[in-house]
Specification:
The chain contains three helices and no strands. The protein has 97 residues and is mostly helical. The protein has one domain. The chain is elongated, with a radius of gyration of 20 Å. The termini are far apart.
């Protein structure tokens, strides 16, 4: 019964994070809300795995946590540098080359 209440509380928290993701005044508020939503999703997958008696859900939750972390870093890098590629600017070729 306690895990059902935990799952319900996680769903409520995820809905609040979706509202924050939509309303957030800055990009960083939205990135933080999406990262927190991903963390809540990992917790929800773990609780769901416990409720259904499927311990292999923890492997899925761990994989989702890694993808969430890498995705957050990539989005923040994009908004900081404006590109997902090389950060180093290469000098332009001269006319004689």
């Amino acid at each position: 019964m306690m895990f059902v209440v935990a799952a319900f509380a996680l769903i409520v928290a995820m809905v609040c994070l979706l509202v924050r993701l939509y309303v957030g005044p800055t990009v960083y508020d939205r990135v933080l809300a999406s990262n927190a939503f991903g963390t809540q999703t990992v917790l929800f997958i773990g609780v769901l795995g416990f409720l259904t008696g499927r311990p292999d859900f923890l492997d899925i939750a761990l994989l989702y946590a890694l993808i969430n972390f890498i995705g957050t870093i990539a989005v923040l890098k994009f908004f900081r540098y404006g590109s997902m590629g090389d950060v180093v600017k290469r000098p332009a070729k001269s006319e004689g080359e």
